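Translate structure to sequence.
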């Protein structure tokens, strides 16, 4: 499917012109089925669009084209070819980007705070934290995949029955059959008691800065210091490996999670909004 624009009006055909430099045609076409779009002008890429399905099933759009004459038709093409609810994530300080997405029909769905968390136990105050009596904290890579996958399933069900999983979107990999499963135990610190897994803390190791992806404890075992004990192990392990800090994103309305991070000295460095288009 190709889309071209003539003086700001969307047309679906082979080729036409868009008002701009030399009135050259901007052609928008999908280059990879269901995933990528390019905006071309004089055979040069002047904009890119991508649709990424997250493991929680939601579809997120990303666009790299910061001229309205390219951005709006590019988004319009993506929306027309993706007949479902879609989302995007925008930095709250990027007023222009937010306005462009709103002009495309997106509305605010949820907001989150962005934190930087130091790993040094002298800064977090976690150097003296010990696991509650009877609780064993399994270091990164020590958990077994099967019970870890089961814990993930139970945690998702508990969150879904309460605030809703959309308030804690977590990036877990999916199996080939589409079901969500824990693939890499090396990314998890786990709390266990008598062989039963009760809580998990996940980190995503990336080149620029590691990301604290999720801290979760079974509903019946919360408020007993398990989350802090897992964080003490996870952040301490990263510190010993030479990682100075991690990032974390928390739903603005998730008061316990925000309090947990602020309680270990996390610094809020920004905020972002998820926008939705129906």
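Result:
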């Amino acid at each position: 499917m190709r889309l071209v624009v003539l003086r700001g009006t969307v047309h679906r055909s082979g080729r036409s012109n868009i008002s701009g430099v030399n009135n050259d045609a901007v052609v928008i076409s999908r280059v990879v089925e269901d995933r990528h779009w390019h905006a071309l002008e004089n055979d040069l890429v002047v904009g890119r669009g991508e649709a990424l399905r997250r493991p929680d099933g939601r579809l997120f759009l990303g666009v790299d084209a910061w001229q309205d004459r390219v951005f709006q038709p590019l988004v319009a093409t993506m929306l027309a070819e993706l007949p479902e609810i879609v989302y995007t994530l925008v930095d709250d300080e990027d007023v222009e980007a937010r306005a462009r997405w709103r002009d495309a029909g997106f509305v605010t769905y949820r907001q989150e705070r962005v934190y930087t968390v130091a790993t040094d136990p002298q800064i977090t105050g976690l150097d003296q934290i010990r696991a509650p009596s009877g609780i064993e904290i399994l270091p990164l890579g020590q958990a077994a995949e099967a019970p870890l996958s089961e814990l993930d399933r139970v945690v998702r069900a508990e969150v879904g029955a309460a605030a809703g999983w959309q308030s804690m979107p977590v990036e877990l990999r999916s199996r080939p059959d589409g079901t969500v499963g824990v693939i890499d135990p090396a990314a998890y610190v786990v709390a266990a008691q008598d062989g039963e897994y009760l809580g998990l803390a996940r980190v995503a190791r990336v080149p620029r800065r590691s990301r604290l992806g999720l801290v979760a404890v079974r509903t019946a075992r919360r408020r007993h210091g398990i989350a802090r004990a897992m964080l003490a192990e996870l952040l301490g392990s990263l510190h010993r490996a030479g990682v100075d800090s991690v990032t974390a994103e928390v739903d603005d309305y998730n008061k316990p999670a925000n309090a947990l991070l602020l309680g270990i000295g996390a610094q809020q460095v920004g905020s972002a909004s998820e926008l939705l288009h129906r």
